[in-house]
Amino acid sequence: MKITKDTRISKILEEKPKAVKILIEVGMQCIGCPMMSKETLEQGCLVHGMAKKEIDLLVKKLNQIK
Questions:
Q1: What is the mean pLDDT of residues 6-23?
Q2: Whole-prediction pTM value?
Q3: How many domains does the chain have?
Q4: Which of 6, 8, 37, 60 has the highest CB neighbour count under 10 A?
Q5: What contacts 36, CB < 8 A, 6 or more positions away?
Q6: In which domain, by residue range, is 57 found?
């Protein structure tokens, strides 16, 4: 699965459970929040104050998960 900014957070966690650790490390402490089933990665990151450049790095890191 290729993760993009438009991938829903719930889909990322479904496909790559190891992503939980990375998301928590970047400040997305709300894993399990009802909004994550509706929010894209970019939406969730912006709500948590991440800059666009940081989101690009996060996408890259998430895609490196095996």
A1: 94
A2: 0.89
A3: 1
A4: 8
A5: 8, 9, 10, 13, 30, 44
A6: 9-63
Task: Let me know: does 27 contact 19? Beta carbons within 8 Å.
Answer: no
In a domain, 4, yes or no: no
CA distance 12 to 16: 6
Q: What backbone torsions phi and psi does residue 56 show, to the nearest 5 degrees?
A: -60, -40
Asked whether residue 20 is assigned to any structural domain, the reply reads: yes
Domain-located, residue 42: yes
Closest CA to 6 of 41, 50, 48: 41
Q: Which two tokens stand for residue 54?
A: 């940081």
**Does residue 3 fall inside a structural domain?**
no
CA distance 24 to 15: 17
Residue-averaged pLDDT of the chain? 92
